[in-house]
Amino acid sequence: MTAPDRLSRLSLNQRTIANADLAEAIAAARAAGLSSIGLWREPVAAVGLDQAEAMIKESGLRVSSLCRGGFFTAAAPADLERAHRDNRAAIEETARLGAATLVLVPGGLPADDRDLAAARARVVAAIERLVPYAREHGVTLGLEPMNPIYAADRGVISTLAQALDIAERFEPTDVGVIVDTFHLWWEPGIEAQLGRAGERILSYQISDWITPLPPDTLLARGMMGDGHIDFAAFTRAVAATGYAGDIEVEIFNADVWAQPFDDVLRTMSERYLELVEPHLSST
Amino acid sequence: MTAPDRLSRLSLNQRTIANADLAEAIAAARAAGLSSIGLWREPVAAVGLDQAEAMIKESGLRVSSLCRGGFFTAAAPADLERAHRDNRAAIEETARLGAATLVLVPGGLPADDRDLAAARARVVAAIERLVPYAREHGVTLGLEPMNPIYAADRGVISTLAQALDIAERFEPTDVGVIVDTFHLWWEPGIEAQLGRAGERILSYQISDWITPLPPDTLLARGMMGDGHIDFAAFTRAVAATGYAGDIEVEIFNADVWAQPFDDVLRTMSERYLELVEPHLSST
Question: Considering only CB atoms, which residues of chain A are within 8 Å of chain B?
């Protein structure tokens, strides 16, 4: 296979070059020979949905995911209602942009609220409420379990097992899961859980766990190969499920963000070809 | 009950006042009206084991635990051998000091080694090898599952469920678990796992999960009440198992370490009485 073919499933999540606007991100992805991009709502909103839709259409890129809905763990009814409305808008945007899935980041504990079980229960209730609207729009919701480092302030769903316990309450066409190496690499029994997830895997996102962890935990992700994650083993387990979608590189890291976009794309493509792509067809 | 009685199960883990030497830590614990202390090997070694033993005896304090053995995830045989010898020494010290348990911190991934499954398997093998020596000395080994934030560099055992899968290979008098709120507060199904642990709970350690997480993740623990953990619910679940041992406050935090020892003891005693102690007898 030639190199361009080998990149056919690699997707640039926009946050990996967070300083790029939508036009720059599209241009960087195309210049690197990629076929897909993972979008974020904020840079899409910055140009307007109509314009974004036209730009994506013209680019020929697939949209591997839209980030992000969710953040529906608020306890106050008014906050929950606001989150619900925002998620409906995100569903509409996902449909318009033709994205494969809407990524749902659960949200953390409300201020001064320590009831984790209740926050987790609100995630289930919020998804249940969203499903009919998502289905109307042909959108599959992707629940993202997050590393426990974020359990308090960002994502109360902490393991793939826990995310699947929720997703399995719904049809696979309605609710699936986002599998991100940074969040899940440490999970005991992860291979079995990936097997259990099967067709519910809506997106495979990759970045590395680096130590020492950067001071700002929100910017703690590393380039594949710079950290401790065994991408070969993890990727083989994902591939064994039959997952045939895109592989998104999503890296929140101040050093990566400081680099020229093309340099980031070059590095991530190289690392993908070295560490991930060889293991996609191992089954 | 009078206040001193209500403190009867509160223990000062030495690391909570890391700048104190053994004499100062003992004095601080006694001045605060505590009955027990959790020791660390380094400050014990600083005065010598004979002297430490005499000081503890004279103080009348119980030793709720000795920190720490473990760190036996090395891949190189020579490193593993060194770890084994060190753990044998730790077992001898535990027996001499009359500590209730030796805390085992598993250790992380070896440098440039990404095989997490193999590292976890080495934990099992290392414990298996230590058990006869521990039994000879009347010491119960306490395996400590650690927050996944430390999975790469400190503790490859990440959940209470995973620690119990290991501990249950052995007799309860040989191997149990350390339950630390900072490490386990987020674990899905933690109440069921605590129930499963039952008599295997050798130590209940408390500190809070605070956000934003301090830049140095090794010093990221907070005083109870300063963070997101529901100590009432967690403590009730521990109490429901019949756990009747000490409750150790173990806080690694630069701000706490900068305070006068007596201030730290006063605050931790107050928070314990407010947040933890009322839930110890709720069953």
Answer: 109, 114-117, 120, 147-149, 151-153, 158-159, 161-162, 165, 185-188, 209, 211-213, 215-217, 227-230, 233
